[in-house]
Design a protein that fits this description.
Length: 409
């Protein structure tokens, strides 16, 4: 049963009791009960009137009733003062904040309440939104001078020397030499090489036979095809043997390759040529278009290239924060200082907010709002008024009766 119904029931029982016990005899008990009901009725009615006078005009009485409407400004200011200076004072707010370890609360949110995923998704969404507003051409035009400067300063010609040093190392030199040998094996089987070989054989034969008949007679037993095939077979045998690390030709070939590579490293003309080629390439490539295309396709687009790296970076930083007591303590101090500064700076906004919220309400809305908040407590006043009135009425009746008997006797 609602408190208001209970209060109404208490008042009704008081009225019924007062009427029912009136004129029912002159015994002390009946007399005392009757006065108790009468006092309960008076107390209940008085409290009902007092409660109703707060929110309206009970029985049409206008004198000092309808308290909320008549004292709206003063009441609002009292509520504002209570909210900002007492309930939500700076000291009360900070007292609650200081009792909590914000670092540990943040870890719990990140690890067990889905905060990690939400934080990373929010960061990615923000960065994607920022990237979507980027003008690729403008960004490329701003970055291109720095890119050109960096490319000019890039010592590619010096890097060539470092590459040569790597090629001189034994495993690499062996592989390169064997690769060259395999290229040679493929080369001697080509039609162009065979034609060149036959042309040279014919030239050598003509030069050799010109010096005598006997030479011509001896060479008549061998045609150019036979000589070419024999030379090709012999070269294949030499090249095949040269691919074995234990063969003398292999060792000499690797050593010769290392010397040739070393000579390239020390060749200033080659270094100068590489530098000029680098400058030529830098001056002739459209760096702006390349950068703009990269920004458009890889920085924006549906699948930006930076998202996996951002997620990995954020996960690493979150793991570092979760595992570090010093970081949690630092965040706790930082957050509390931030809250303290913000509370100190914007505490007046509490009063402004409460005042604006209450001022937006009409008189009827304000009355209804306050009544909903304190109705239960006010109805308890009515119930207590009836109970206390009954007790006081009966006590006074007993005292009066006792006095009358003492003095009347």
């Amino acid at each position: 049963m609602q408190k208001e119904n209970q209060a109404n029931l208490a008042l009704a029982l008081s009225v019924i009791g007062a009427v029912g016990t009136a004129g029912q005899g002159s015994s002390l008990l009946v007399h005392t009960i009757h006065h108790g009901f009468v006092a309960a009725t008076i107390g209940g009615l008085a409290d009902w009137f007092a409660v109703r006078a707060i929110f309206g005009k009970p029985l049409g009485i206008t004198h000092r009733t309808d308290i909320l409407r008549r004292n709206r400004v003063r009441i609002i200011e009292s509520l504002v003062k209570f909210s900002s200076d007492d309930l939500l004072s700076k000291e009360n707010i900070m007292q609650v904040i200081v009792q909590e370890n914000i670092g540990i609360l943040l870890v719990e949110y990140l690890e067990y309440r889905g905060g990690r995923e939400r934080l990373i998704d929010a960061a990615v969404d923000i960065l994607r939104h920022v990237a979507s507003d980027i003008d690729p051409r403008r960004v490329a035009e701003e970055l291109s001078p720095y890119m050109i400067q960096a490319l000019r300063a890039l010592p590619l010609e010096n890097s060539f020397a470092d590459l040569v040093d790597v090629l001189k190392e034994e495993p690499h030199a062996d592989r390169i030499f064997n690769m060259l040998v395999r290229v040679g094996l493929q080369l001697i089987q080509t039609q162009a090489f065979q034609e060149m070989l036959r042309d040279n054989i014919a030239s050598i034969r003509a030069e050799y036979e010109r010096d005598g008949m006997m030479r011509a007679l001896v060479l008549s037993f061998f045609d150019d095809e036979m000589i070419g095939a024999w030379l090709t077979e012999r070269m294949e045998e030499i090249l095949q043997a040269a691919m074995h690390p234990g063969d003398r030709r292999h060792r000499e070939g690797v050593q010769a390759l290392s010397h040739a590579v070393s000579s390239l490293r020390e060749n200033p003309a080659l270094r100068e040529m590489l530098y000029r080629y680098k400058i030529h390439v830098i001056e002739n490539i459209d760096i702006v278009s390349m950068l703009a295309d990269f920004v458009e396709r890889r920085m924006k687009g549906n699948h930006p290239v930076w998202i996996p790296y951002i997620k990995e970076l954020l996960n690493e930083k979150i793991d570092l924060f979760v595992q570090s007591e010093s970081w949690k303590s630092r965040v706790d101090r930082w957050m509390k200082k931030l809250v303290a500064d913000e509370v100190d700076k914007h505490h007046d906004m509490i009063a402004v907010f409460v005042r604006d919220y209450l001022n937006q309400k009409t008189d009827d809305e304000l009355v209804s709002f306050v009544e909903r908040k304190i109705r239960t407590d006010l109805q308890m006043i009515r119930i207590n008024g009836a109970v206390v009135g009954a007790a006081v009425g009966m006590m006074i009746s007993v005292l009066v009766s006792a006095a009358e008997r003492m003095w009347g006797g």
